[in-house]
TrEMBL record:
Domain DUF305: 37-123
Name under which the protein is recorded: DUF305 domain-containing protein
Database matches in Gene3D superfamilies: 1.20.1260.10
Organism of derivation: Tropicimonas omnivorans
InterPro entries associated with the record: DUF305_CopM-like (IPR005183), Ferritin-like (IPR012347)
UniProt-listed PANTHER family: SLL0788 PROTEIN
Pfam assignment, any one: DUF305
Length: 131
């Protein structure tokens, strides 16, 4: 693992830990008892709902290849893109008042976009090029 990869992994891990540690316990799991309409209403209240909806749609529409490596990468791209979209939402629409959170959001954008590019290169090498 390269130094850049280690840094990206460390920053990504910190971001995930920060998100999980600040979310209420009930928010860490999906309430499967809610109807689609109820879930849509609760998501509509979040400035991040569009990013989450886009990720879920993209992941659901991925045509798996049967190649575990390619499938992993194909599913991770929308996951990473959602993180980028959420970070941009914070920086552009919500305008974070906390410099540390804003810096984390920018780091998420930088690292996740770099990882998306790397995943696309790997997919092309594996014979599954994507746009």
């Amino acid at each position: 693992m390269t130094t850049v990869s280690r840094r990206v992994a460390a920053i990504s891990s910190i971001f995930v830990i920060a998100l999980l540690s600040t979310a209420p316990v009930g928010a860490q799991t999906m309430d499967h008892g809610k109807s689609d309409a109820e879930m849509s209403r609760s998501q509509a209240e979040s400035p991040y709902a569009d990013a989450m909806d886009s990720m879920m749609h993209s992941m659901e529409t991925v045509e798996e290849t049967g190649n575990p490596d390619a499938d992993f990468l194909l599913l991770m791209i929308p996951h990473h893109q959602s993180a980028v979209d959420m970070a941009r939402t914070l920086l552009e629409r919500s305008r974070s008042d906390d410099a540390e959170v804003a810096a984390m959001a920018q780091a998420v954008i930088d690292t996740q976009e770099a990882e998306i590019s790397a995943m696309k290169v790997m997919l092309a090498r594996l014979g599954y090029p994507v746009k």
